[in-house]
Amino acid sequence: MKTCIFVMFFFFICLVSQATGDYDVSVKLLEYNRDEDCSCDDTPIICDDCDVYFRICLKPLSPTQNPKCYGNNNNQRVTDTHSFLFADSLRYADFYTWKDIMGQPSFDISVYAYDFDLLNSNDDLGVTTYEYRRNTTTNKLIVTTKPGIKNLRIKLSLDVSLDVSSGQENVNIPIQKWLHLVVAVSTTSLFRRSLVS
Predict the structure, then answer these.
(1) Do residues 74 and 190 lie in contact, with contact meaning Cβ atoms separated by under 8 Å?
(2) DSSP string, 151-176
(3) Whether residue 191 has pLDDT greater than 50
(4) At residue 166, does pLDDT exceed 50?
(5) What is the DSSP string of 67-107?
């Protein structure tokens, strides 16, 4: 009887561990800020600020996986700027989604900024990162990334949800069944022992 209970308990633990499953992450970029930078285009007379475009990456950490990146398109840029709202200036390049990420929700969101230069090579303006360590879901969490070079930072809205397509919601049913079975077997075993004694 002890062996039977142990086996059932082992299967129950396995089912619980599967509940971490896969998850999805959605990011909506809200606001870009960086210190004014007159050196981007080397214009001697006026301050010609940077022509900014972005690459955004998610790096899962539980377990550690390779970064998954979007963007890096210099056609989706804002010219001569060090501060703007994405809703006004990059409305069609402000929303990104990562699906079927394995493990627990623990990851880094990194935004890389570049200055587009028509004549010379594009300049790297730095990277700014937000670290998500809650290991749980969230909805429309508004955060600001850690400041990078020249106080580079991004304000964004973050959603983390369980991946329904991975069958996580269904895993609760067998967990409950196994739990009820373990309790029933344990109760029966204790009742029989009481009768024998």
Answers:
(1) no
(2) G-EEEEEEEEEE-GGGTHHHHHHHHH
(3) no
(4) yes
(5) -EEEE--TTS-EEEESEEEHHHH-GGGSEEEEEEEESSS-E
pLDDT at 172 over 80: no
Once rounded to an integer, what is the mean pLDDT over residues 130-147? Answer: 95
Least confident segment among 73-77, 148-152, 154-158, 191-195: 191-195
* Domain assignments of the chain as residue spans, ordered by start: 23-164
Average pLDDT, the chain: 80
- The domain 23-164 having CATH identifier 3.40.50.300: the answer here is no
Closest to 118 measured CA to CA, from 31, 34, 53: 53
Distances (CA, A) of 82 to 37, 55, 181: 7, 17, 62
- Take residue 34 and report the two structure tokens written for it: 């960086």
The three-state secondary structure class of 54 is strand
